[in-house]
Amino acid sequence: MILFEAIAALVVVPIAAAAAYTAADCAATSEKYSLIPYISWGSTPENVKPLWDAAGCNQQMCQYWADKYAIQPYRSWGSMPESLKASWDHPSMKCNYHVKNYNTDTCTHLADEFGLVPYISWGSTPDYAKPLWDAAGCNQQMCQYWADKYAIQPYRSWGSMPESLKASWDHPSMKCNYHVKNYNTDTCTHLADEFGLVPYISWGSTPDYAKPLWDAAGCNQQMCQYWADKYAIQPYRSWGSMPESLKASWDHPSMQCNYRVKNYNTDTCTHLADEFGLVPYISWGSTPDYAKPLWDAAGCNQQMCQYWADKYAIQPYRSWGSMPESLKASWDHPSMKCNYHVKNYNTDTCTHLADEFGLVPYISWGSTPDYAKPLWDAAGCNQQMCQYWADKYAIQPYRSWGSMPESLKASWDHPSMQCNYHVKNYNTDTCTHLADEFGLVPYISWGSTPDYAKPLWDAAGCNQQMCQYWADKYAIQPYRSWGSMPESLKASWDHPSMKCNYHVKNYNTDTCTHLADEFGLVPYISRGSTPDYAKPLWDAAGCNQQMCQYWADKYAIQPYRSWGSMPESLKASWDHPSMQCNYHVKNYNTDTCTHLADEFGLVPYISWGSTPDYAKPLWDAAGCNQQMCQYWADKYAIQPYRSWGSMPESLKASWDHPSMQCNSRVVVRSTSVSSSSSPSSSSVSPPPSSSLSSSSSAVVGTPSVYPTAPKDSNKDVTKTDVHLDDCIRLSQAYEIVPWVTWGTASSGVKALWNLYACGVDFCDYWRKTFGYALAASLDAVPEIRIFRVSLASFENGDLCLEIAMASASVAQPRLAALATAAAVLLPLASSAGVQYTGVSQTGLESAAPQLPSAATIAHLTAMGANVFRFPVLWENFQSTPNGTLNSNYMAKLDAAIGYVTAASAASVSIIDLHNNGTWAGVALGSQAATADAGAFADLWGKIAARYAGYPTTVWFGLMNAPNLRLGTCAETTLWYTYVSKAVAAIRATGANNMILVPAALNSTAETWQSPCTNGDTMHAIVDSSFAYDVQQYFVADGTPTAGTCTKTVDVFTSITAWLKAKNQKAFLSSFAVNWDDVTCQSLLPQYLAYFDANSQQWLGWAYWAGGPNMPIGGFYYVESQSDSTDSSLLKLLASYFVNRTTTSSSGGTSSTTIIVVAVVVVGALLLGAVTVLIVVKARRERKPGLPRAEDEDASFKPVKKRANTDRKSMMEERELRDAVKQMMLSNNVPVKDKPETRPNNALTGKQRMRLDAASATETFQAKNVNLKDTDSSQFSHFVNFTSSRFQVESQAPNNDDSYLF
């Protein structure tokens, strides 16, 4: 809208440009100027009116009003103001016919107004209304409308329907008879007769559109009475004239016509009873006379007993269940006696019979009536009485009768009863009681066991049961220990028919090894002579895998290295795919690790390759990750910090991984240094994990062993032996200041430093490079404003000391200021910058998704971007929550990600769910929401499963700016449930991709901990690969809108401190500034520099935005297709891209590489001189805290000054002394009124350093350091570093790429 008005105001764009504007733009113009189409222009400016017309805004207002005021055409004006209604109905608007809010009234109104008859005549319907008729599906809606309006009865009566409409009603494309709800019996019979439909048998020729009508009208059951009447059917007596083809349907279980027609009643006794309230022997209820003979003939009285028992869940003698009181008298009637006629008998049935009639099993029937005796036998009551008596009288078999009456004991002991052997109260209810009581020893002696008990022993299978009983009782360990087992039982344990060793669960490793040795069993190769009864024990004890370690120990096997003394007959088993002994024994060694890596393509911390799950624990147990470093170093001849040797590219990321740190862990195997004295023989500690703190920047002492050349080398280290790049990496990684402090370097790092002779080379490099460059342009040297360098000292040689001392007396104030600046800036310059920088690419988040441009992505990648964020829409993935993923949409997302990987295989694609905490516009967690946390997890689980194979190049952005609209801090905990379930679902798929976890309340930096504890709530997320997803915009209200930036880098201070305290990282997934605003232009470089300076807490950023959904030329539109059209905004961003290019499109040196060399040169030189001066003075004055190196280590010897025998070298040193002295004495430097604020570029190469200009300036001012700026036109010298990696130049002041801030 802002762009719309801006264009209109300037009148610089053709009218055709208005076609790009949406209904929202038209609506905004209407609201602003009170414009009412065809009624009033309101206050619309003249230059806007042509744009309004060209954009077709008049018609666009119809839908806008319909949505805004909830208008129902022909039905309700909604909340539309009176002032707009005339425009709505205007003949040139005709909004009723142009909006999508149609309804049934729309159809009927069109038909009535224009005399439209479906499929017969359009009547006078105008052309513009015809699409509305079709879109609303009006043809079919007219059927029900006519049926209701004219009281039509299908097949029965036309009602009052005009003749002119009947042809449409019967039209083949209408078939109204089959589409209206006014169906009746005639409908069913007509369908059956017309199409030969037989219920539950055949649809005949019934068309598909008529089948739902049949079901809706309940026609199946209506056919019973129709047939009964039509064919004079007498249920159970006569089919009448019914055709054979219908009889199967009549009898079909789902029809049951016998029970549904009024011509008769059911074919069962139960139906009569239920239908007429008939109670046997109590009341006929309303049973008609013609039905009573059926009842008697069918013997229904007794049938009712079982019916009731099942229906009401009656338990005879125990429970009436849900039986009504009105039926109980019938149940107990002497002629019914249901208790004795139903199959629902139970123990209570038996006990009740016994107690009621005095029945004693096998002794006396007592007074039991004849009709009850069959029930006793059917229920098996004789044996049930044993347990009943045992419980009732507390009988202890073989020990006590309890309170059992004498009259029952004969029955208890009866041979056909044998109650002692049938009750659960039998002693301990196990064979062990017999054994203990009678001294029975299986297969050895019956002891005193009575004959009647012996059958029980055999029947219960007691012999084998004794094995486990003894094992537990005496703590027996098969093959290992008898425990406390009596000697008298051991023969039974070992008896061939017992074989207890093979039948107890107390198995152990000896069990397995004994089986193998005894029977010649070879796992997965041969069972040998193992008997069948022993095989289950082998499997139950898991012996197969136990053999691996047994063999490894027995035969001294070294996996992958030596078979030891293992017999050939066992080797096939060791290597069997189901054994995989190499991966299951603890005898692992280095060869184990290397073999796993080579066999399965395993790359530590990068990819498991094809490593099977069973091998992964072995890898971890053997500590293989770190072992690979030395293996690779030896295999590929790697020289840490010097050469990759022949190492494949696929392994380098693992070598450099923070958890590997191979450079610092391998033993440097060098032939140029003797093994006895080589400093590389000790391992090197990894680089520090955090940036150099401010306290570590000050020079607090010299190292215990000063960095110098190796003293015991077996050959002289000359200039050709020094690798300056390696020295620079060591200095930056471990904060080494040459000749001043070791920083955080370990003994191993010091050894590498000395091996490379880094200290000697640094002095020569600075002296011969910086000195001559400065000497050529002393008159144009500016003061330091933004100082960026991590190497801050000269060599501890006579020349550097002399320069510092000679200058000290005349330039003391200037040196003091520079020393203060150095103390402030050094700690800020130690950060290596963020890892991921790029741009969001819109298009896929719209309802009609569009692919971003492959050319744009390729161009941005060439400029240095390495991350692309793709906003996507949940509704595009799934049409309904928990649904399947839309294959067409997934193909587009695949294509977008493919553009990124095609441009660079290492670049990252972020799948950003751009729903802002909603589904279909409804906030998640609200009462109206149809998508819950489970649906959210379902979506991410399915996405993760698809992209699990891209763990490093596809990230999952769970939700863009989630806002659940609760208005309270409860939103944070509610959102946590969604996130936690999504993270769990992703990991459940096995995906290890990076997850970007947003907080609630739009997940902005400024709301991270206030007003709600957003961050602390999300800190409960525990995962191995995630970062927090943060957004921030910089206008007053924090939204991505035009305006002046009012928020400085301070907006990130709180969250950065929180991240540092929690040891977490974040990713700034969305931010932008109004590039048309000068304040925003000045602040953007500061934001970007801030993240580089705090890269320990920030992974990187993605700028919003480019892509097909962004308006070209908008205030935050960023992208371009080629260098020739790169915007100034993109150029600025590109200077901060991680992989930014070093050359411009014209082939020359770019502004990223052309960093103000004077700053680096002068800073290095002056700060070096100052630092050395401080060190020299401290040594001479022997102040506390500044000990001399020779005091700390007797082995310290200053490096001898290199011989300068030729006249040229002497001249060079003299010129350098004079140049530095003159520079230090110079104070006549021009000053500009207002320093320019521009993006700070950085040294090229992998080790980048940036500084926040604003915070640095504030620090200088706070310390009263007077830093001046100079006109860049005076600074035109060109400096070439001897190392090609640091080529820097300054350019003319009118070139945007030339000036620093």
UniProtKB/TrEMBL annotation:
Ranges where the Glycoside hydrolase family domain occurs: 832-1105
EC class: hydrolase
Bias (Low complexity) ranges: 673-705
This enzyme's EC code(s): 3.2.1.4
Superkingdom to which the source organism belongs: Eukaryota
Gene3D superfamilies reported in the protein's UniProt record: Glycosidases
Recorded catalytic activity of this chain's protein: Endohydrolysis of (1->4)-beta-D-glucosidic linkages in cellulose, lichenin and cereal beta-D-glucans
Region Disordered, residue ranges: 673-717, 1184-1211
Keyword set, alphabetical order: Glycosidase, Hydrolase, Membrane, Signal, Transmembrane, Transmembrane helix
Span of the signal peptide: 1-18
Record-annotated membrane-spanning stretches: 1154-1176
Listed InterPro entries: GH (IPR017853), Glyco_hydro_5 (IPR001547)
Record family assignment: Belongs to the glycosyl hydrolase 5 (cellulase A) family.
The protein's name in its UniProt record: cellulase
Species of provenance: Polyrhizophydium stewartii
